[in-house]
Write a structure and sequence with these properties.
The structure is a homodimer of 169-residue chains. Chain A is mainly alpha-helical and 169 residues long. In chain A, 69% of the residues lie in helices and 6% in strands. A three-stranded antiparallel β-sheet of chain A has the order 1-3-2. The model of chain A has no long low-confidence stretch (mean pLDDT 89). Chains A and B meet through helix 1, helix 2, helix 5 and helix 6 of A and helix 1, helix 2, helix 5 and helix 6 of B. The structure holds a DNA duplex (30 and 30 nucleotides).
DNA sequence: TCTGATATGGCAATCTATTGATGGAAAACC
DNA sequence: GGTTTTCCATCAATAGATTGCCATATCAGA
């Protein structure tokens, strides 16, 4: 290295790469840890209802105003939750077995199956509300609303980015 | 409601609660989606080595300068990855079966088992490096280094918060 | 009508993750 | 020495998640 200026110019991007790698490493470890803790603590929060975080997610999707009456197709649920069909089928099976959800072959396209909350499912979803609210409050107690929005936006972009990588199927 | 000012004062915090609940809902859904996509795309990225994201995480922990020689105890690995002992045991078993990791009962406290990379494990970890770098680069291509740090810090706090909820064991 | 694409279900294999219970070995404490 | 605690392993059960493959019903277009 005879030219110190050239060395600096060459080193600057390398340092940035090293820094980015280090940050990425930590970032994905935190994502891994947070996700595991989410399932652990979240499932505990609704364990009194015999539910899990995944079932909670499915029921939450089906309970939304636009989905309450007609339900959602399996394909729509897959797009919403971003899980595999085989996985979702098993979750739905358990919810059906518990009487919280029903499969309907409604109208138009005969290939589609609509998944909808049952009466019992809607009742239980309502009963789970306070537990879910309390969980959110405890989990985000140290975050301002603005910070929550910030984290949401960053995770939203990360999800899109990862989804783009996954897309080829 | 006879006093419009009182109505406003009463409504403001309720609106904030509703907003926070909505943001929390979206936030945790993104966390759930991102985590699933992380495992899906990450495992694909190192599938040529027959590895998974979890095995990658364990090997990464063991490959760090401070751990390379003496390894880490199971307890230390549990604290680092924040998973259950029973789960970690199974992951380590698979790594041992693949010859990438070894269990040692070294020195001092006879109860402790040190988990360490084997020669083959260190070799493979080195070989996985470029694939991991490429994965990080693709996953975070649209994030500035500053944004990566921001996301890391928020996830770090979220992890701590969730861990505090989980702590009672 | 034939053909292909789509939506779902079923089955199998593998891995991850939790909880719960049991047990052994070693350390620490009284 | 005896009791308690800690660290680790193991077995079992349940749930979540992926991949891959096959089957069926339906739709859409040539």
């Amino acid at each position: 290295m005879e030219n110190p200026v050239a060395a600096l110019l060459a080193q600057a991007p390398r340092d940035d790469d090293a820094a980015r790698f280090d940050v990425a490493n930590r970032l994905f470890l935190r994502l891994y840890q947070s996700s595991n803790l989410l399932h652990k603590t979240g499932t505990r929060a609704v364990s009194a209802f015999g539910a899990t975080t995944q079932q909670w997610a499915v029921m939450g999707a089906l309970a939304r105003p636009g989905s309450r009456d007609t339900g959602l197709t399996v394909k729509e649920l897959i797009a919403f939750l971003m899980v595999s069909r085989q996985n979702l089928t098993a979750v739905i099976d358990r919810l059906v077995a518990a009487g919280l959800v029903e499969r309907l072959r409604a109208g138009g396209d005969g290939r589609l199956r609509h998944v909808r909350l049952t009466e019992e499912g809607a009742r239980q979803w309502g009963a789970m509300g306070p537990a879910i609210r309390a969980y959110y409050q405890a989990a985000l107690a140290e975050f301002s609303t603005e910070e929550c929005v910030q984290l949401f936006r960053l995770l939203d972009r990360l999800r899109d980015s990862l989804n783009r990588i996954a897309e080829p199927e």
